[in-house]
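Dear support,

We are seeing what looks like truncated structure output for some complexes. This example has four components. We would appreciate it if you could run it in full and send us the complete token output so we can diff it against ours.
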Amino acid sequence: MKEYQVGEIAKSVGVNVETLRYYEKIKLMPKPKRKESRYRVYDDTDLKRLKFIVRAKELGFTLKEIKELLNLKIESSATCGDVKHLAEHKLTDIENRIKDLMNMKKVLTKLVHQCIQEEVSADECPILEVIEYKVNDGDK
Amino acid sequence: MKEYQVGEIAKSVGVNVETLRYYEKIKLMPKPKRKESRYRVYDDTDLKRLKFIVRAKELGFTLKEIKELLNLKIESSATCGDVKHLAEHKLTDIENRIKDLMNMKKVLTKLVHQCIQEEVSADECPILEVIEYKVNDGDK
DNA sequence: ATAATACCCGTGGTATGGTACGGAGTCAAG
DNA sequence: CTTGACTCCGTACCATACCACGGGTATTAT
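Here is the complete output from our reference environment:
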């Protein structure tokens, strides 16, 4: 089984050495064994775990959630249903964020289209006026 | 023109008093005048500005961007085109975030559907296995 | 007059996910 | 045996957007 030192393993998954130390500190990665020189020594199990973390991050899981996923994997009592539960929760979360963003997009798009005469002073820009919509009660 | 003290104005737009002090500190809100008692005194102009901030935040602008928008409004040389530019930038930003989230959603949805037997041990959960997909090179 | 709010201020903490710094020790090559 | 690259560690700092704390003053209500 191959052994790596921190710089190697970090480079191979594309994270910073400091990041790895950080993951160790927050207990997302286990404390690796050390050489006599105190240099950290990682193996393929660590590499696998680290890759899992990076991949799960790409899927939108937070570090805290990733820790939960990894713990489930280890707890012998945990079931696939538990994992599914976490994934579904995340999915709902993502769907809500999409909904919010779509709404912002709709409003902003409309705003951008209202600005026809770009040379007009910003003070009279329809975009700013519409953002103020709820503010101006007809006066001004 | 009506005058408000910090608690009133904060309550009327639904933000915390501390938040208002924070906005003042980061120069998003101007330093208000004070009574002899040093109490802050706000007027309708301040209220309008604060409402603008809250509204722009709902549209997804960061405090920094809101500051820019408000500065544009004041600079007499700024044009509506400048404002439009900021809004378009934000729009692109939002669109990218939506794209990322949609992708996450797609993958996660697929993952969730792969988990049929919920009673199976988490260790053999297809969700976790697929997250590891890129890790396992056929072995194990 | 006194109690209950409301406000003042500076400072420090929260959460998230790291990055940067700097002095010291280690290791391999020349 | 020296140089350069790598690693060690603790600590501090980045951005974002606030919230909490605590001691003191002001205002308001009873």
